[in-house]
Amino acid sequence: MIVDDSAVIRGMIARWLTEAGGFEIVATASNGRMAVDSAERSKPEIILLDIEMPEVDGLAALPMILKAHPASKVIVISTLTQRNAEISLKCLSLGAVDYLAKPESARAAGAAADFRRDLIEKLRALGETKSRQARVLAPVIPVASTSFAPPAARPGTVRPQCLLIGSSTGGPRAVERVLLDLKPALSTIPVLIVQHMPAMFTAVFAEHLQALLSVPAREARDGDAVAPGTILVAPGGRHMGVVSSGGKAVIRLNDGPPENFCRPAVDVLFREAAGVFGASAIAAVLTGMGSDGTHGARHLTKAGATIIAQDEATSIVWGMPGSIVKAGLAHEILPLESIGRSLKGHITGSSK
């Protein structure tokens, strides 16, 4: 179902999805009130929900839509503004699974092409996840009974000195949950996060984490010290790495080409952190489409670091963590609700 107050946008998206094949448009709506009624009748698997609409906007409509049809996966679409970034993150906390930056104008050919590509990729990933999850019965995947490579050998007993988190689709809520569960230990370790987000969204996300956790969190700046008790989020549109300078670990941002079609890329952070922290790094790869993080994870495991992957049953899209598992790089494969507790055990040396 496509929900947007612009007939041009609704028509454009419907045409793209029809041409791409494999998608059926079951309903369209021009405001939130119509969307609630249509969701109950047409029961769409995925809903594209605009934020700014007359009568009932996307933020107000979202909880009503999910109440009318809880099985729907909602992707919020909005133009890139500070206000819309804040509203989009609020929508994610209310149950939306992802967000997408809408082009300012349907006539902006380059922006429209990027939007079309990203939209179709996200929809295909969500569709593939639905097909796989229909076959998943256990909350934790028994790796030995699959064709995946076996988990990497457990590293030594080096106490982690830096936590690395990589995530994409469904990531903001997953990151929140992990850090909330880890909160008692956050003051003892720096946290570096690469969440695939556009510019502007990452700063808002960092502010949200600080308000939620009462721990210093901000969008990373070039030259920032990697210090215990601080959460640094890679800025949208820039790679975030880490280097050793004067005996201390500091952030290095760069505008290099995308890796895995991503900038920031998890691979960049993992690769560089492996060289700086070695076996004292610990990484969590959470829900997200694609395979970003796998190449960097190879560097981490070679250096003796520990890697935890989110399981398929609790992932919105089991792309990034699934790639880690299939490559045999995961030391632990856990449901979302267990990851924070496991990280806390590694970091504090206690299983409690």
Automatic annotation (TrEMBL):
One Gene Ontology term from the biological process aspect of the record: chemotaxis
InterPro entries: CheB-like, CheB_C, CheY-like_superfamily, Sig_transdc_resp-reg_Me-estase, Sig_transdc_resp-reg_receiver
GO terms assigned for molecular function: phosphorelay response regulator activity; protein-glutamate methylesterase activity; protein-glutamine glutaminase activity
Domain Response regulatory: 1-117
Gene: cheB
Ranges of residues in domain CheB-type methylesterase: 155-350
Domain of life: Bacteria
The keyword RNA-binding is assigned to this record: no
Gene3D superfamilies: 3.40.50.2300, Methylesterase CheB, C-terminal domain (3.40.50.180)
Localization in the cell: Cytoplasm
Active-site residue numbers: S168, H196, D292
The EC number(s) this enzyme carries: 3.1.1.61, 3.5.1.44
Pfam assignment, any one: CheB_methylest
GO CC annotation terms, alphabetical: cytoplasm
Alphabetical UniProt keywords: Chemotaxis, Cytoplasm, Hydrolase, Phosphoprotein
SMART domains: REC
Catalytic activity: L-glutaminyl-[protein] + H2O = L-glutamyl-[protein] + NH4(+); [protein]-L-glutamate 5-O-methyl ester + H2O = L-glutamyl-[protein] + methanol + H(+)
Sites of 4-aspartylphosphate modification: D50
Function summary: Involved in chemotaxis. Part of a chemotaxis signal transduction system that modulates chemotaxis in response to various stimuli. Catalyzes the demethylation of specific methylglutamate residues introduced into the chemoreceptors (methyl-accepting chemotaxis proteins or MCP) by CheR. Also mediates the irreversible deamidation of specific glutamine residues to glutamic acid.
Enzyme class: hydrolase
Protein's name in the database: Protein-glutamate methylesterase/protein-glutamine glutaminase
